[in-house]
Task: inverse folding
């Protein structure tokens, strides 16, 4: 898998979007290190407009608190690269991007270090994907390698894979 969308000729993102549409599920995206790449991947397939509510690119740490509702004390004490931050981003974006008063049924987030080099004591390639589905919120730790662009692309690919596996 090279770009988050294909695995041995199969378009996993298109299948994911079709599956979510069939189930009546909706998705809201909160991104940091991926900077909009995950949202772009999720809206690439036809039919995405019935599934994807939108995205917040919370690249600046303060936006994670003010827009997504991530606990400011957690951000000050742990920084933005933390599993609980990923979880709170995923949960917060469901409500931040509510449509007609209804939150998205699924929130997904990415936060981490794309590099080059470490950041705030976290190695390059340290990524957390947050997932909020109904009342269950979880995070997934990734340890990715490669260039900055490769790490960001791999984070998108893994986020799609995680979402598909968890629904």
Result:
């Amino acid at each position: 898998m090279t770009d988050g969308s294909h695995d041995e000729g199969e378009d996993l993102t298109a299948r994911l979007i079709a599956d979510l549409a069939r189930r009546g599920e909706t998705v809201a995206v909160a991104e940091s290190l991926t900077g909009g790449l995950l949202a772009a991947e999720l809206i690439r397939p036809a039919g995405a407009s019935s599934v994807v509510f939108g995205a917040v690119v919370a690249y600046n740490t303060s936006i994670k608190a003010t827009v997504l509702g991530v606990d400011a004390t957690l951000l000050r004490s742990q920084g933005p690269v933390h599993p609980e931050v990923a979880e709170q981003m995923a949960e917060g974006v469901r409500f931040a991007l509510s449509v007609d008063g209804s939150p998205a049924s699924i929130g997904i987030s990415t936060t981490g270090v794309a590099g080059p080099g470490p950041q705030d004591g976290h190695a390059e390639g340290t990524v957390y994907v947050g997932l909020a589905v109904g009342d269950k919120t979880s995070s997934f730790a990734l340890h990715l390698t490669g260039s900055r662009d490769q790490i960001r692309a791999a984070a998108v690919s893994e986020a799609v894979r995680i979402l598909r596996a968890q629904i």
